[in-house]
User: Fold these one by one.
Assistant:
Number 1:
Amino acid sequence: MKNLFLFISCIFLFSCNQDQKVIKRTGEPDVLQIEGTDARMNGAIKKANETLSLFDAVLASKDTSITGIALKVRFDTSNGGEHIWLTDVTKKNGHYNGVIGNSPTATTAVKLGDTVLVPDEDISDWMYVEEGKLRGGYTIRVLRDEMSDEEKKTFDEENGLIIED
């Protein structure tokens, strides 16, 4: 499997349509901007929060066969918010901590590699990989659903993950 966080960022490249804005970055994956009023994306964020206990169970299990554990967090910006994946996620005393895993494009509050404390209300997604299958990753699924069948097939093959409906 290729670098999972490159995979997560690259999904933005494949899933653009005329109503979405793509930010091109030299040497980095493209980033797709989505309106804060997007019903499908907001539904994915709601589902991620409703199922966070599944993510917590994986964190608590310390199962070394599970990989790609990540938490997506919203950071305020002057024109809304930017959602960034965190790696090396831990939960202590009821609070999540993680390392910024994507280079921010709109916020200057954090940078790649920073360790942050996560307010629960800012969580927008979670994910992990179990036996090659993506678990969680609800916002990824929304973007992938916008791909053509051919793009989905290519995307899945390139990243070596099984994304079930």
Number 2:
Amino acid sequence: MSGFRVRMADWEREREAMRAIRTPVFIQEQQVPQQIEWDEMDPLCVHALAVDADGTPIGTGRLAPDGKIGRMAVLEGWRGKGVGAAILDFLVASAQERGIKQCRLHAQCHAMDFYLQHGFEADGGEFMEAGMPHRRMHRDL
């Protein structure tokens, strides 16, 4: 992991940093409707924030109290550099620290290989969420 680090972020204090990642990735690139991107779960979640060497936010993800990982997003210029893997590892470790026995997520179908490489298994068929095909995945901890 070079040129960036992942740390826990406080939603109340750092929500704009996470919005600065999720807005271009989900709302602009992937056309996720704004009204479903921001939900009542954000204040309840553990948030991971990846920042570059200068402290600029470059990626984020969240862990819900029930073990669901979501809102994984990395800015385009940082993709393919291990940022997503570091965020996912951080969230899984956070789940383990909290005694969560299984992490779940809804993977965009094009990203399934990424999650498979990190120990997640697919279960169930393909379904549409936010206008994109997804599959449910889980990882026992």
Number 3:
Amino acid sequence: MAKHTLLDEPPSPEEQFKDAMGKAGRFLARRPHSRAELGVKLRSFEPETVESALVRLEELGLIDDAAFAAQWVKERSSTKGARALEAELAQKGVAPEVISEALGEAGDETKRADELASRYLRRVVNKPPAKQAASIQGMLLRRGFGLDVAIQAARRVLPPEGWD
């Protein structure tokens, strides 16, 4: 990246593009990014330069929001519910339709909630049944699962005694 002082001429559009691509490459070397997320990280460049760099990175297959969202969901869906994953991807600038498609590929949220509830049960086994249920439900809600999914998961992993 060329360094310029106030006495130098401003960098040419070609130099800016090269610098933006280099900076984007360093970000992408660490982890995948959404298009919008990378655009924010390149905001120190002229908007036209950022757009040109983003278009080129898409052409090269280095940024792809659908692939990014699918990978994000795949890596995190074992510990998070659909609502949490949706919020994370929206925060990263992924389009709602792309998020919906990625979440559709995540599989059965009920099964994931049951697995998490089963693992969490060991932590609450010494509590009374009602407190066990409340703890499991709270954990699932904090991780972005829906209320109905959390209640049903707690019911499936806990013995039927104490629910009345």
